[in-house]
């Protein structure tokens, strides 16, 4: 008897990912376009982008911030984007002193200025620390964007622009989030590289 293979499972997962992205294509292009315009306008006006989330969403926050500060395809000026998920001293001190729900909220309070954009990533839309940060962003007159999934959770009702990936699978939602993040970065880069 040969080694068992997982071909069927692999094919099923790839098809599920494709179906999810087809749903993104079908329903989310207008909101992605609106968010791209928002981010370009904020950066043009000298504002910055703050990104945050937990777990895989923390990694996506860092990835998107790095693409903006660095580059995707062409050399252009560095764009101000900060992932609030990377400073271990801040994260552990804030978690210890204020509770984990405040680890992003305190950073938004310290770093956010009117006109900046706060982007919260939460596959469920119900991560307490993301919601706290978005509430503070609104108080400080930042624009807000939520990348979420499922039914959008509480996050969808709090943000100026909600990008709700139509899936109940955390993996498929995250795969779509990074695809959307790359598209936003490409559009932003094309704008600034073309100047």
Summarize this, please?
The chain has 195 residues and is of the alpha/beta class.
Salient structural properties:
195 residues, alpha/beta, Rossmann fold, five-stranded parallel sheet, 8 helices, 57% helix
Mind explaining what this structure looks like?
It contains eight helices and five strands; from the N terminus they run ααβαβααβαβαβα. It has a single domain (8-193), classed as Glucose-6-phosphate isomerase like protein, domain 1 (Rossmann fold, 3-Layer(aba) Sandwich), CATH 3.40.50.10490. The N and C termini lie far apart (63 Å). Strands 2-1-3-4-5 form a five-stranded parallel sheet, with helices on both faces. It has 195 residues and is an alpha/beta fold. The protein is globular, with a radius of gyration of 17 Å. The relative contact order is 0.18.
Strand and helix layout:
Blueprint: H1 7-27, H2 29-44, E1 49-53, H3 56-69, E2 81-83, H4 88-98, H5 105-111, E3 117-121, H6 128-139, E4 143-149, H7 153-158, E5 161-165, H8 170-193
Parallel strand pairs: 1-2, 1-3, 3-4, 4-5
| Number of domain units | 1
Which residue ranges are poorly predicted, with pLDDT under 50 across at least 5 consecutive positions? Answer: none
CATH superfamily: Glucose-6-phosphate isomerase like protein, domain 1
Q: Rg from C-alpha positions?
A: 17 Å
